[in-house]
Each structure stands twice: as C-alpha cells, then as structure tokens.
Design goal:
single chain; about 350 residues; 11 helices; about 40% helix; disordered N terminus; disordered C terminus
Length: about 350
C-alpha cells in the first residue's frame, strides 16, 4: 500500500511540475512562449481583425482548434481555468450577431475531437447561428478533423479537406483502467462500500462484472447512435447503411474521405474562401476574426489563441511537445466520461 501511495504522489508531483519543465525547456532553447501566465486574459472584450481583404461583406473565420473540452485543457501557466470550447464559440458567435455585415462563416478545424457533450454543444451553437442568420457555413479541415471535430463539422453545409487531412473516427470511447491484477500481487484488497449495484462500475480497483460492462456498453452504443444520427443530418446523400459502415471508428485520408462521401472537396483555405465568395454571389469580401486584444492575427493561417501556442516551436523539441500533449490528454481522460476523440500514438518520450 505504501508503494502504491508513493507512486501516486510521484505521479501527481510530475504532473504539477510539468508546466515549469516545459517553460525551462523553451527558455533554454531560446524560444519564446506565448501563454496566459496568470490567467484572466479571458476577461478582455473581443476585438475584430481583418485577416484578408479590404472591403466588402465579411466572412467570419471561426477556429475549432485543439481538444474540444469543457475548459481549456492547457489553462493558464499556473493552472487557472480558461474558457472551454463551447463557451468560446458561443461568445464569438454572440459578437458576430451584433454585426450585420457578417455574411458567411468559415470553420477552420484542426482537432482530434473531445468530450461527447462539448462536441454536441459546439455543433448546436454553430447550427443555431447558421439557421438564425441564414448565412452559408463552410468547414475547412486542416491536419486533423476527427471524431468530435467531424461531429462539429456537420453544422456546415459544405466540407472541404486539406490534401493532408486525416478525418473520420466516427465512434465513441469510454476509458477505464484496472489495477486489480497488480493489487492482487501486492496483497491489496478493495474495500469500497456502495449503495447500488452499478455505483462504482468502472472502478480501477476491481474488474468489471459482465453486467457492468453491458451497462456501460449500452451508453456507448446510444452515443454512437447519436453520432450516426448527426452524420445523417449533415451528409444527407449517405444512406444509413453507408453511415453504419463508415462509423467503425477508422480514420480516412482526404482522398478516402472524398470517395466515401464524408467531405465534398479537397483544397486549402484560399479555396474555401473562394467557395464562400461564389456562394455570396461574387464581389469583394473581408475575412475577419474576433479575438482577445493580446492574441495576434495576421492572416488566414494565424492559429487560434484558444490554447497556448509556442513561437519557434522547432526550438521546443518533439520530446517537450509530446509532454505537453500528454498533459492535455491526461486532463481529458483524468475524469470519467464518454468521448468523441481520436488520439493514437501518444506515449512517454523514448517509449517507442
């Protein structure tokens, strides 16, 4: 028991010191880190920046960037929570509702997905804005647009993948570990007392019973059915049989996704803007973003400030970047939940 407690304390300590370690790595490498050190940056009012064009109707560039979660998984440097994805999207769209010049929305999506509930909320916010304002909404996939991110894209009337996009992963995951075997070797027993047969289903201290596994599987199946329902709404040309086949959890390249009917075309951000301009009947447009004053926006490719971005990321090194990814993944799966997420191949440095 002492050994287990010692290992738990060591794990918590490692996670607590991880941000400081990352900061030291960047400092030693001569890089520059742009991060909300004390938190509170979310209190500043949104400002508008034009990232393309000089006149004409406005196209709102809206980022779905990073893990889709209830709070920003990176947070401030000292752990202060920041706006979650749905809260950030809702705030931006509320700001857009005040601007009658907003004539279209371009979703720039680069995300592995996230929690089931947050993905649904983001989808609903975008769909509600589209229906209220009756404006065209186009989704542009970048590197990754999987699971919950693909779910969100169903709010768009057209989806375009970048030639290097990985998308799909239409499925649900519930993660749970069991230390029962280790505890048996150490002579440790679980003495948890519950009221209700399924109260501690999924506990790491014992194995799932067949009844518990079936009960949890039932929830996963219901969420999977909801996912397929949303895909059927967003991709009406696909039959229920086709969707069932595509919803196996596998990922697709851009060309595979186009052939399967999961996307409508392949191109880059400029192509997506051109498509929206044609939908608006031609003429000049301005692509705008709403963001915090401290966040820099220069062009179509400037990334969202929703999660900390490291300038000179090459100086950071793949090892430290992987540690940051692990911290975000640890916080996502650190609490019980059902997720629409695809995040393979994450391991400790040197483990592969």
């Amino acid at each position: 028991m002492r050994r287990i407690e010692s290992q738990a304390r060591a794990s918590r300590s490692a996670r607590a010191w991880l941000p400081l370690f990352l900061f030291a790595v960047v400092a030693c490498a001569g890089g520059c880190i742009t991060i909300d050190v004390l938190g509170g940056g979310e209190e500043a009012a949104l400002v508008e920046t034009v990232v393309r064009g000089r006149e004409g109707r406005k196209i709102l560039l809206l980022d779905i960037d990073g893990v889709i979660g209830e709070v920003d998984l990176a947070g401030s440097f000292f752990g202060g929570p920041m706006l979650g994805t749905a809260a950030r999207i809702a705030e931006v769209l509320d700001r857009a509702r005040q601007d009658d010049e907003i004539a279209a929305v371009l979703l720039r999506i680069d995300s592995p997905g996230g929690t089931a509930t947050e993905s649904e909320q983001v989808y609903e916010e975008i769909l509600r804005f589209r229906e209220e304002r009756r404006v065209p909404v186009v989704a542009q996939f970048l590197g990754t647009a999987t699971s919950g991110a693909y779910y969100v894209a169903m709010a768009a009337e057209r989806i375009q993948a970048h030639p290097t996009t990985v998308t799909g992963s239409i499925g649900v995951i519930f993660t749970s570990l069991s230390f029962a075997g280790l505890m048996e070797k150490l002579g440790v027993e679980d003495q948890t007392i519950t009221g209700g047969e399924f109260k501690d289903a999924g506990s790491p201290f014992r194995r799932l019973t067949p009844a518990e596994r079936a009960q949890l599987q039932g929830i996963v199946d219901d969420l999977h059915a909801r996912f397929r329902e949303i895909v059927s709404r967003g991709r009406p040309k696909l039959s229920s049989e086709q969707i069932a086949e595509l919803a196996s959890g596998r990922v697709f390249s851009a060309r595979e996704a186009l052939a399967a009917g999961l996307v409508d075309g392949i191109g880059n951000l400029d192509d997506a803007v051109g498509d929206l301009e044609r939908r608006l009947g031609g003429g000049p447009t301005r692509v705008v973003t709403y963001h915090r004053p401290r966040e820099i926006r220069r062009n179509l490719y400037t990334r969202s400030g929703a999660v900390p971005r490291i300038e000179g990321s090459a100086a950071l090194g793949s090892e430290a970047a992987e540690l940051m990814a692990l911290q975000r993944l640890d916080r996502l799966f650190g609490e019980p939940g059902f997720h629409y997420v695809w995040w393979p191949g994450v391991g400790w440095p040197g483990s592969r």
